[in-house]
């Protein structure tokens, strides 16, 4: 039997909350954790170091909580999902699992695009799990566009004073985030090719990386990512496919556009698709190896941007 | 060591080499065939020039090697005498025929057998093409271990590019515009792979794996990938399926091992050389 606001709910109870001070954060999250512990539920904390400290200081029994270091747990969405799947499998059969997690965003120095897709996608990905997931966002650091996406992605919202409400802004369907453009993109691209073959794309990207300080693995990753993006554009998109590459000495940006619609679901690239052996795996691999991947759609079609290498 | 990769000439090939030569101009093919056979004669191999047409015409194609014709080291063979009546070949029988001819050449004091064949008539129609592709790999296995070398020429003006690609990828060496990859026999592994395996080669690679019948023989299928320039995860899965989930890919690059570890290909081990 599930306890608390999720009592009677089936599957994932995905809730957000907003706080403006450390005390607000504690007031929102500590009762959520303590209630779970009293009910004998597994209770997990995947927060940044500062928030984790705030919780350890206030909960009734820190030793009853399972702490997943936030910086590891939220390094990239694909790995977060893999890790949660593993952890949830350990608790198969329990009535409810409670998790509080700090999802990264531009205000914490991360790229928001793929985390915004993550927040929308987990509704499907963990739909079957008896999970109460609380995603608190800090109003002192979270930008307005992130807050708008957060509200669209969470069916539930927790308020002050222990209120748990249905979120009237929840869309139930996914909207594309604004494209994350890299500052390098104001420059003229080093490569601009129409309808390259995957092999031509690989050669062009390799050549564009000659003057960079990328490691062997990073070079392999960016070449593979470009090859897969062009392969996807040629097989799933609408022609023409356009490949552009920018690079400075430390990082490389690859953009592949086509005239099609792009993936229909926010889960694309975040999970290895299970429908067929390999379809969708290329995009998932790209999300596992690149420093950042963003997907966007505009009047001209669909664009995937991939960044590999350091940020300076 | 067999010669592999995309070649711009038919010169300099050894006792075990096997090259596919797609051509547009018959005169260019004949020039390349003469070069290929001249090298074989220099290496002491008995040589055959195999093509369609009456014997007198075939003799005129290799006239500049007249001395070898006179000595009997070089023969011209009209295609019907070599491969039967032009229907689909029986791969094992065809290999047995060349194996017998290679043994006969060795018995007569030659260093082996070398054949330059215009094989377009053998692959007219899907069934004939499939049978001949299977034969191309089976005979390639024979060549890897015995002193039999061949140049298989195909007329690009008659055959569709897809047929040329399916044939070229089953030779260790090929002229330009054949196939982005090659799957061929080597003495130290079940097969070797060369070139690039991606979207462009996806269908041909699956077909080539099927035609090469990797499952034959026990134990893990060892694949020499030291000449592979690129392999995508689709090809890694295809390899695993073709080997019934028990395959070792040896490669000089670190990318395939990293890729296989990230994506989890069942029964595939990637070993760095």
From TrEMBL, chain A:
Cited SUPFAM superfamilies: ATPase domain of HSP90 chaperone/DNA topoisomerase II/histidine kinase
Record-annotated Histidine kinase/HSP90-like ATPase domain positions: 199-307
Domain MEDS, residue spans: 14-155
Keyword line: Kinase, Serine/threonine-protein kinase, Transferase
InterPro entries, sorted: Anti-sigma-factor_SerPK, HATPase_C_sf, HATPase_dom, MEDS_domain, RsbA-like_anti_sig
Single GO term (MF): kinase activity
Protein name: Sensor histidine kinase
Organism of this sequence: Saccharothrix xinjiangensis
Lineage, highest ranks first: Bacteria, Bacillati, Actinomycetota, Actinomycetes, Pseudonocardiales
From TrEMBL, chain B:
SUPFAM superfamilies for this protein: SpoIIaa-like
Domain STAS: 191-239
Protein name per its UniProtKB record: MEDS domain-containing protein
């Amino acid at each position: 039997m599930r306890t608390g606001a999720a009592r009677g709910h089936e599957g994932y109870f995905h809730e957000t909350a907003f706080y403006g001070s450390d005390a607000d954060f504690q007031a929102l999250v500590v009762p959520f954790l303590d209630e779970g512990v009293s009910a004998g539920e597994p209770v997990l904390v995947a927060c940044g170091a500062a928030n984790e400290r705030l919780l350890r200081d206030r909960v009734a029994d820190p030793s009853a909580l399972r702490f997943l270091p936030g910086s590891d747990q939220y390094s990239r969405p694909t790995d977060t999902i893999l890790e949660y799947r593993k952890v949830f499998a350990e608790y198969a059969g329990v009535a409810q699992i409670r998790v509080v997690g700090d999802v990264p965003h531009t205000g914490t120095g991360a790229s928001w695009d793929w985390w915004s897709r993550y927040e929308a996608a987990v509704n499907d990905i963990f739909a079957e799990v008896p999970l109460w997931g609380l995603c608190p966002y800090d109003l002192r650091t979270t930008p307005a566009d992130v807050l708008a996406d957060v509200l669209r992605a969470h069916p539930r919202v927790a308020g002050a004073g222990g209120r748990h409400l249905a979120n009237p802004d929840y869309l139930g369907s996914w909207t594309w985030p604004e494209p994350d453009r890299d500052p390098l993109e104001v420059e003229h691209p080093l490569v601009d090719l129409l309808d390259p073959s995957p092999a031509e794309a690989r050669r062009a990207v390799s050549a564009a990386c000659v003057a960079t300080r990328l490691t062997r693995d990073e070079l392999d990753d960016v070449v593979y990512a470009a090859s897969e993006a062009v392969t996807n554009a040629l097989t799933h998109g609408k022609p023409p496919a356009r490949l552009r590459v920018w690079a400075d000495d430390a990082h490389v940006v690859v953009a592949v556009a086509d005239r099609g619609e792009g993936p229909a679901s926010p889960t694309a690239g975040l999970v290895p698709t299970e429908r067929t052996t390999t379809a969708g795996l290329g995009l998932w691999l790209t999300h596992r190896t690149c420093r950042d991947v963003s997907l966007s759609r505009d009047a001209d079609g669909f664009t995937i941007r991939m960044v590999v290498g350091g940020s300076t | 060591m067999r010669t592999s990769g995309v070649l711009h000439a038919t010169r300099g090939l050894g006792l075990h080499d096997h090259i596919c030569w797609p051509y547009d101009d018959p005169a260019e093919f004949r020039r390349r065939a003469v070069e290929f056979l001249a090298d074989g004669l220099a290496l002491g191999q008995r040589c055959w020039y195999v093509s369609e047409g009456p014997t007198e015409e075939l003799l005129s194609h290799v006239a500049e090697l007249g001395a070898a014709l006179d000595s009997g080291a070089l023969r011209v063979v009209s295609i019907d005498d070599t491969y039967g009546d032009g229907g689909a070949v029986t791969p094992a029988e065809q290999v047995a025929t060349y194996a017998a001819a290679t043994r006969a050449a060795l018995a007569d004091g030659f260093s082996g057998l070398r054949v330059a064949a215009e094989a377009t008539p053998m692959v007219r129609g899907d069934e004939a093409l499939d049978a001949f592709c299977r034969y191309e790999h089976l005979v390639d296995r024979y060549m890897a271990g015995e002193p039999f070398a061949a140049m298989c020429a195909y007329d690009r003006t008659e055959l569709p590019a897809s047929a040329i690609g399916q044939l070229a990828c089953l030779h260790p060496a090929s002229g330009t515009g054949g196939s982005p990859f090659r799957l061929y026999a080597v003495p130290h592994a079940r097969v070797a792979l060369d070139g690039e395996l991606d979207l462009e080669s996806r269908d041909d690679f699956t077909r080539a794996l099927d035609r090469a019948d990797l499952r034959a023989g026990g134990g893990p299928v060892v694949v020499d990938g030291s000449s592979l320039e690129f392999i995508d995860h689709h090809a890694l899965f295809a390899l695993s399926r073709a080997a019934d989930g028990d395959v070792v890919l040896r490669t000089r690059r670190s990318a395939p091992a990293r890729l296989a570890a990230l994506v989890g290909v069942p029964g595939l081990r990637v070993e760095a050389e």
